[in-house]
Design brief:
The protein is of the alpha/beta class. It has a single domain (about 5-320), classed as Metallo-dependent phosphatases (Purple Acid Phosphatase, chain A, domain 2, 4-Layer Sandwich). The protein contains six helices and 15 strands. Strands 1, 2, 3, 4, 5, 13, 14 and 15 form an eight-stranded mixed β-sheet that branches. β4 (about 90-95), α2 (about 105-115) and β5 form a beta-alpha-beta unit. The protein starts with a strand and ends with a strand.
C-alpha cells in the first residue's frame, strides 16, 4: 500500500445519538442514547457498493451484566443509520461472545437477547472462552457456516470494496506459525485480495500488541508480519477488556506511516480492566463499554469509537492506496 495520511482527535462527544447518529463537537457531558431496542425478528440490509460500515466489538455477553444489552442497543442504532444511508453494513464479533465459557445456554440466554438481532449480518472470530466448552462446539453451532468450521475456523468476507480476513488466534489449537494450515490459507488469501486491488483488514481475538492485562500475543507474530508485508491497513482484536488504538506499526512492530493500525475493542459488555504498562506506540487507551464504527471506502477509512453513553472517545481517518 502507498503512503497513508492520518487525521484524528482523541475525544469529542455527540449532542444526541439518534438513528442517524449526528455527531458534534466536545461537550463536558454526553447526552444519553435513546431507548431504541433493535428488532429481535428482522435485520434490515442495505445494498453493497463503494462504501461500507463495519461495527465491531468483542468480549460481549454475560447474564450477570447489562452492559452487553447497552452495546446491543448502540449496535442497532448504528446499523439502522447505515441502512438509512443506503450503505452496506456488517457486525464483527471479535471473540468471547458468551461468558463465562461459551456454553450453549450462554449463547441462547445471554448473547442472543443482547446481540442476536444482528446475527444475520454478524461475522464472528472465535475467542479463548469459546474453547472452554466442547472445543468451541456451541459457538460453531450458534453461528453455523458464518463461523467457518471447527476444522477451518478462518475465512474472509467483503464489505464494500474491502476484504476482511478472519483468523483464529488460539494458536495452541489450530497453529499460527508459517507451517500451519491457517498461515498457508492466509498468504493465499492476501495474494488474492492484492491481485484484486482490494483494501484489506483482518480480525481475530488475541491482540499482537497490548498494554492491557494479557499483554502481547507474540504467537501471532508470523501472521502479523505477513499482514504488514501485504499492506494490510487495519487489525481488529478483542480479548483485553478495554479500547486501545496503536500507532501504525510495520512487520517488526516499529512505527511506520504505512503500517497496520491495530484497534483493540474488547468493550462489548465484559467487566473493564485497567492499563498494565506504558508503551509509546500506544496512542489511546480507554476503559469504556461501546463499539467501533469503521467507514470503509476504496481509498480511505475512518473510525469512531462510540461509548454507550453516546460519547465518541476516539476518532480519525486515513487515506490509503489499495
Amino acid at each position: 500500500m502507498g503512503r497513508r495520511r492520518f487525521s484524528f482527535e482523541r475525544c469529542w462527544s455527540t449532542a444526541t445519538l439518534v438513528a442517524a447518529l449526528t455527531l458534534a463537537g466536545c461537550t463536558a457531558t454526553a447526552s444519553p442514547i435513546p431507548s431504541v431496542v433493535p428488532s429481535p425478528t428482522s435485520t434490515p440490509t442495505a445494498p453493497s457498493g463503494e462504501r461500507g460500515i463495519l461495527i465491531a466489538a468483542g468480549d460481549v455477553a454475560s447474564c450477570s451484566t447489562s452492559a452487553d444489552e447497552e452495546t446491543g442497543v448502540l449496535v442497532g442504532q448504528l446499523r439502522d443509520a447505515a441502512v438509512s444511508d443506503h450503505l452496506e453494513v456488517a457486525v464483527a464479533l471479535l471473540g468471547d461472545g458468551a461468558y463465562p465459557n461459551g456454553a450453549a445456554t450462554s449463547w441462547a440466554n445471554c448473547y442472543d437477547p443482547a446481540w442476536g438481532a444482528f446475527k444475520e449480518i454478524t461475522h464472528p472470530a472465535v475467542g479463548n472462552h469459546e474453547y472452554l466448552t466442547d472445543n468451541a462446539a456451541p459457538y460453531f453451532s450458534y453461528f453455523g457456516s458464518a463461523a467457518g468450521s471447527p476444522e477451518k475456523s478462518w475465512y474472509s468476507y467483503t464489505i464494500g470494496t474491502w476484504r476482511i480476513i478472519v483468523l483464529n488466534s488460539e494458536c495452541a489449537v489450530v497453529g499460527c506459525g508459517t507451517n500451519s494450515a491457517q498461515y498457508r490459507w492466509l498468504t493465499a488469501s492476501l495474494a488474492s485480495a492484492r491481485a484484486a486491488g482490494e483494501p484489506i483488514a483482518a480480525m481475530w481475538h488475541r491482540p499482537r500488541f497490548s498494554t492491557g492485562e494479557h499483554g502481547d500475543a507474540s504467537e501471532m507474530q508470523a501472521i502479523w508480519s505477513a499482514l504488514a508485508t501485504a499492506g494490510v491497513a487495519i487489525v481488529l482484536n478483542g480479548h483485553e477488556h478495554n479500547y486501545e488504538r496503536w500507532e501504525p506499526l510495520n512487520a517488526a512492530g516499529s512505527p511506520a506511516s504505512t503500517g497496520i493500525t491495530e484497534f483493540i475493542v474488547g468493550t462489548g459488555g465484559a467487566d473493564l480492566r485497567a492499563q498494565r504498562r506504558s508503551d509509546a506506540r500506544s496512542a489511546v487507551y480507554r476503559m469504556v463499554h461501546g463499539v467501533i464504527r469503521l467507514k470503509l471506502a476504496r481509498d480511505s477509512y475512518s473510525w469512531e469509537m462510540i461509548a454507550v453513553d453516546g460519547s465518541v472517545v476516539d476518532h480519525g481517518s486515513v487515506a490509503i492506496t489499495p
